[in-house]
Amino acid sequence: ELDRDRFVDLLNEQSAIGETADGGLHRLALSADDRAARDWFREHLEDAGLEVRVDEFGNTFGRRAGTDPDASPVLLGSHLDSQPNGGIYDGALGVVAALEFVLTLNDEGIETTHPIEVVNWTNEEGSRFQPAMQGSGVWAGAHDLETEYEKTDTDGVTLREELERIGYRGDVPAEPQETYESYLELHVEQGPKLEAAGSDVGVVTGIVGFTWGKLTFVGNPDHSGPTPMDHRSDALVAAADTIQAVRRIGNSLGAETVGTVGSIDVSPNSVNIIPGKVTMTWGFRDSDDAVVQRAYEMVLAEANDAASREGVELESEETMRAESVDFADRCIEAVQSAADDLEYDSLQLGSGAGHDATHLASVTDTGMVFAVSEDGKSHSPAEYTSWEDCYAAANTLANAALTLAHE
Amino acid sequence: ELDRDRFVDLLNEQSAIGETADGGLHRLALSADDRAARDWFREHLEDAGLEVRVDEFGNTFGRRAGTDPDASPVLLGSHLDSQPNGGIYDGALGVVAALEFVLTLNDEGIETTHPIEVVNWTNEEGSRFQPAMQGSGVWAGAHDLETEYEKTDTDGVTLREELERIGYRGDVPAEPQETYESYLELHVEQGPKLEAAGSDVGVVTGIVGFTWGKLTFVGNPDHSGPTPMDHRSDALVAAADTIQAVRRIGNSLGAETVGTVGSIDVSPNSVNIIPGKVTMTWGFRDSDDAVVQRAYEMVLAEANDAASREGVELESEETMRAESVDFADRCIEAVQSAADDLEYDSLQLGSGAGHDATHLASVTDTGMVFAVSEDGKSHSPAEYTSWEDCYAAANTLANAALTLAHE
Ligand SMILES: NC(=O)NCCC(=O)O
Ligand SMILES: NC(=O)NCCC(=O)O
After folding, report:
1. Start-end of H helices in B32-91
2. Ligand 1 within 6 A of A353 CB?
3. Reduced to 3 states, what is the DSSP secondary structure of residue A38?
4. Which residues does residue B62 pair with via DSSP β-bridges, in sequence order?
């Protein structure tokens, strides 16, 4: 049993770093607040007597030794970065639960056969720098380190510069240093299924695949008054057509497909100038990778059609693609047994959000625990999970990890 | 005949203040560059021996005395502010032409019966602060001074603060100090008609009416992954529907109606967050005020429909309305005769852009001269008028003004 008061204190301590006036969290990857949260995490790891290492990509690990010098570690963790004005549970809950688990092991003098490692992955959110799940993706070998170093935010600042500025470009190579026993991650569901089923905790069976992209429409900026309608190449009209196409594809492709345009930037963005340039993102997800591929093809075709109807140029780039993932049976079972032993009502479900576990699944046996999200809300200050539900998920994680670490 | 070399020098001097790398001009109303352009203008007025006054709203006048102490002044001018990354002719050409006219009168020792006043109006563009034609609108009594002082830019800075910061909140009441003989304004056409007709110069007969507005859609920011399509209230989807409605209305309402969405701002604007809030502008113009009113009603109805389809809240505000204007016959004739006397090929046409002349027409007899716009381009660095065409329009303005000032 975890120490509930300490667990809540730890959650509250971290959510004070980058909190917003409306109770949300604004802690973009590699920002000053992200640094402060990382420092907070490192201090707690050190206080707990863990051996800390920071890799070249800022992924930060704390290791608690096992009794068997040859045993591979069980890895537990998530991420401390947040969305712009996001919620306080997304990511942080999983890091804090893993930390609380080793503190409890220390308190109770429990030794495990396998070492336990606790990790904070760099830039899971993919909002400031793309792709999402970037640190775990580099570490798992899905992305090239140098390519990701050169990624820029909207101000043109590179990720490498920011890692160095905040002092989290470590020495350890960003790749597995040994074989892992398994990886477990606790996260808020961010969707409505657990609440709808009346469950206490979720046993996650896998993660949807996804594709994200960026479109740039370039038309002619011109005066909105004396320029006749048939003389216009309006980049925003082409973008609006594409926003509607994304909605249509999301609605119609598969039963669980989702499609979203989350961001758009217009230049010059003046009431009386026909928009000359529009950059927008799009994204699709589905548990069927063939559906994801079909959505990808459809949105590019629709964007091309919109661009040629309007007589604007189009540049297109896929910024992220992740195959769907099925978790290892033995991890699903470990999580399910832990929930059952603790007498929690549980539901097996797939994840509609991406997680660092997506990439970990290519390195080691992987599983996840979901905490209930009230009203399914996430990536918003309205994101909410009761302390009760946070605690249920954390205990499930702890018990599942203990099983795997003893094995 | 104006001094062509000096005229070109004056144009070049001013366009260096706030020039952009791509040959455009970025001189937003009440910015540091606008101040520098105003200082430049004031210096030239003083050097020319004109009596300078700055009114409470920053409108800046230079007066050259007439021979008849009781005669009302002929007013000539335009504006020195620009669009974001706009062109170098829009506004500035009219101010420089008026200035060059009085310099030529000085050189040639010509005295006029009526005084001549040269004016630079504050914030004609309406891009940083709305509405457009704001300084002339206040001066003409179309807007309340205090209300306009409180207008803010997107950073929340008030117009009053900015006027004070740049030192252009003068003492003179922002209203006509006496009766005016007439007002003439030279401006680039900003549309394709003169070029298409092969004309040297345009004789403007009036200005379209227009309506501008701002819409704010407020939905639920949420995660773009685990949030099912039928759980979404996406502010950007409602905005995209409205962008297309504006296009449809512009295309179909009247033969000359134009409709434009020039700017849109999304929050939180992240690739994997369903947009929670979108602010967008729209605008319609037509020479028939009933059509303008109809467009206004249609866009509000369409925005409301889009908002309710998507389940988002809508706030709506009309930020500008200007009735269409017919210029005084005697001003149209003065411009036409001047063009004929100079043996320029001319075309009579209406203006599809708003001008300070819109408001001046409610104060005194008003007319305008248009210079040819290559390819009709404006509000863009690609805006271009040859020196030949600038000079033709300036000479037409000068000759028409001389006729009116002698009368
Ligand atoms: N879990 C989560 O919010 N991850 C961010 C990447 C995504 O959009 O799924
Ligand atoms: N002439 C001009 O560009 N005026 C700005 C206001 C408008 O959009 O018409």
Report:
1. 32-47
2. yes
3. helix
4. B52, B118
CB B221 within 8 A of CB B227: no
Q: Do A40 and A52 meet the contact criterion of CB atoms below 8 Å apart?
A: no
- The two structure tokens encoding residue B353: 């852009």
- What's the N-to-C CA distance of chain B in angstroms? 19
Cβ of residue A91 lying under 6 Å from some atom of ligand 1: no
Q: Using CA of residue B265, residue B268, residue B271, residue B273, what is the dihedral sign? A: negative
**Minimum-distance CB partner of A264 among B132, B191, B266:** B266
Residue B228: CB partners within 8 Å, gap ≥ 6? A191, A192, A256, A258
Whether A221 and B258 lie within 8 Å, measured CB to CB: no
**Ranges of H-type helices in B71-144:** 92-107, 134-139
A303, A316 in Cβ contact below 8 A?
yes
List, for residues A46-102, the tens digit of each pLDDT value. 999 999 999 999 999 999 999 999 999 999 999 999 999 999 999 999 999 999 999
- DSSP sequence for B226-264: TS-GGG---HHHHHHHHHHHHHHHHHHSSTT-EEE---E
| Residue B280 alpha carbon to ligand 2 centre in Å | 18
pLDDT tens, position by position, for chain B (407 residues)? 899 999 999 999 999 999 999 999 999 999 999 999 999 999 999 999 999 999 999 999 999 999 999 999 999 999 999 999 999 999 999 999 999 999 999 999 999 999 999 999 999 999 999 999 999 999 999 999 999 999 999 899 999 999 999 999 999 999 999 999 999 999 999 999 999 999 999 999 999 999 999 999 999 999 999 999 999 999 999 999 999 999 999 999 999 999 999 999 999 999 999 999 999 999 999 999 999 999 999 999 999 999 999 999 999 999 999 999 999 999 999 999 999 999 999 999 999 999 999 999 999 999 999 999 999 999 999 999 999 999 999 999 999 999 999 85
State the helix-helix crossing angle for A4-15 and A387-406, rounded to 10 degrees: 110
Task: Tell me how long chain B is.
Answer: 407
In degrees and rounded to multiples of 5, residue B254 shows phi and psi of -120, 165
A81-101 burial, b for 16+ CB within 10 Å, e for fewer? Answer: bbbbbbbbbbbbbbbbbbbbb
Phi, psi of B356 (to 5 degrees): -55, -25
Q: Are A376 and B127 in contact (CB < 8 Å)?
A: no
With CB atoms and an 8 Å threshold, state whether A125 touches B272: yes
User: Which are the contacts of A226, defined by CB distance < 8 A and separation ≥ 6?
Assistant: B189, B190, B191, B192, B193, B351, B352, B353, B376, B378
Rounded distance from Cα B79 to ligand 2 centre (Å): 11
Helix (H/G/I), strand (E/B), else coil: B205? strand
Q: How many helices, marked H, and strands, marked E, lie in chain A?
A: 12, 16
Distances (CA, A) of A121 to A61, A95, A154, A183, A368: 9, 9, 22, 13, 15
Burial class of residue B195 in the structure, from the number of CB atoms within 10 Å of its CB (0-12 exposed, 13-18 middle, 19+ buried):
middle
Q: Are A199 and A335 in contact (CB under 8 A)?
A: no
DSSP-derived secondary structure letter, A118: E
